[in-house]
Amino acid sequence: MDSKKLRINSTGLNGSIDIPGDKSISHRSIMLGAIAQGKTVVNNFLPGDDCLSTISCFEKLGVKITQNKDHVEIEGAGFDGLREPIEILDTGNSGTTTRLMVGLLSGIPIHTCMIGDESIAKRPMKRVTEPLRQMGAKIDGREDGNFTPLSIRGGSLQGIDYVSPVASAQVKSSILLAGLNANGITSVTEPHKSRDHTERMLRAFGCEVEEAGLTVKVNGGQKLVGTNIQVPGDISSAAFFLVAGAIVPNSRITLKNVGMNPTRTGIVDVLVKMGARLEIENERVENNEPIADLTIQTSELKGIEIDGDIIPRLIDEIPVIALLATQAEGKTVIKDASELKVKETNRIDTVVGELTKLGAKIEPTEDGMIISGEKKQLTGGHVHSHGDHRIGMMLAIAACIANAEVTLSDPESISVSYPTFFEHLDYLIEEK
Ligand code: S3P
């Protein structure tokens, strides 16, 4: 396992970058392209390790996918054209690949086995396998189908009305994808609205999806038609540079083509509420997804409370929001975020543990954390990504405001969602 010396004590991050494609949307473009009839072309696909895992799973299912320099082409096999694989499907570090594919494969009459890495092996799968079993799916796995490896013997499914105890787009999407192949109507109701990329993209592929409040419905037996997808920049990746721009002195950063889907913009609301100098320009819509250019400048920030409905809209940004809060005046309290415990790592533990090593004042709570804004430089230290891409990137931004050497163990994990992260960071730090 490698260790990387991070750039510290930055005198300012300046310039403009194009944010790489959205991870959630890139996964879905491959999945829906594969089960559609005809060709799908995906522009600005994210070639991160997670999305490459999705491609490799569908290739094993017999789908022809060509990766070009600036786009990916998928020869849609339709639901009927997926072939029983002789190999195990390896979903790597990707929860989205694992959970969405279990749903998608449950209604197709082939047998598949699925495995992921050490982190995936610890992530709860009952949240999808249980409702899918209620639909008639035949799924098995460790601890009665709660953990990988999983085995799925696809067959006929019956639509259900599922009331989910968690606001999770992975759960919602898994059930909706199974619902496309089920008899009758399938609906999912969530406690708070989670990201709706599956619903938006299903419509772009010609499907009907009904939404009423927190309930989403699909009819079984719908056919998807291949299309062209333009993937917006990932706001969850942009978040690292939005925070960097706000907390590093003498900074001004423009982030271009950032996805602004309202189910994902919790980070923008938090920055505004904390007092950040943020401008939103050039707003437009492509493939049913809103996009804009964002410019952030070094800001005077104040601590706030973050809880309730906003949590699913910024769940992946909480590690970097914790860092942001260390540079605010006053306390920031993050509540209702116990989902953090079942991400790539237990992010309450990893965020608190690693930021504490750099001198931050941060305490864990049962469902979040409390950060005392101290507005002072962080200290040096040896920190660890724990194999979690978002922890690694948060620590690399933290190092920009550290006053002594910071080394990061396992920086490679960052390629899960942002393979060009360090190139972009170096570019913004370098003198223009
Ligand atoms: C994702 C949904 C979220 C998010 C993950 C990607 C998706 O997970 O944390 O990084 O693409 O659907 P949950 O649905 O479990 O909240």
Q: Can you give keywords for this protein?
A:
432 residues, alpha/beta, UDP-n-acetylglucosamine1-carboxyvinyl-transferase, Chain, 2 domains, 5-stranded mixed β-sheet, 4-stranded mixed β-sheet, 13 helices, 29% strand
What characteristic shape results from the CA principal axes? globular
CATH fold call of the largest domain: UDP-n-acetylglucosamine1-carboxyvinyl-transferase, Chain
Q: Any idea what the CATH architecture of the largest domain is?
A: Alpha-beta prism
Q: What average pLDDT do the residues reach?
A: 97
Number of helices: 13
How large is the radius of gyration?
Answer: 21 Å
Q: Which residue ranges are poorly predicted, with pLDDT under 50 across at least 5 consecutive positions?
A: none
**What's the level 1 CATH class of the largest domain?**
Alpha Beta
Query: What is the total domain count?
Result: 2
Topology record:
Blueprint (H helix, E strand, L loop, with lengths): L2 E3 L8 E5 L4 H13 L1 E7 L5 H12 L3 E4 L3 E7 L11 E2 L4 H12 L4 E5 L10 H9 L3 E4 H4 L1 E7 L3 E2 L2 E3 L5 H11 L2 E2 L1 E5 L7 H8 L4 E4 L2 E5 L8 E3 L4 H13 L4 E8 L6 H9 L2 E10 L2 E9 L3 E2 L2 E2 L11 H9 L1 E7 L12 H11 L4 E4 L2 E6 L7 E4 L4 H12 L5 E4 L11 H9 L3
Parallel strand pairs: 2-17, 3-16, 6-7, 10-12, 11-13, 20-22, 21-22, 25-26
Antiparallel strand pairs: 1-26, 3-5, 4-5, 7-9, 8-9, 13-15, 14-15, 17-19, 18-19, 22-24, 23-24
Helix pairs in contact: 1-2, 1-7, 3-6, 4-6, 8-10, 8-12, 10-11
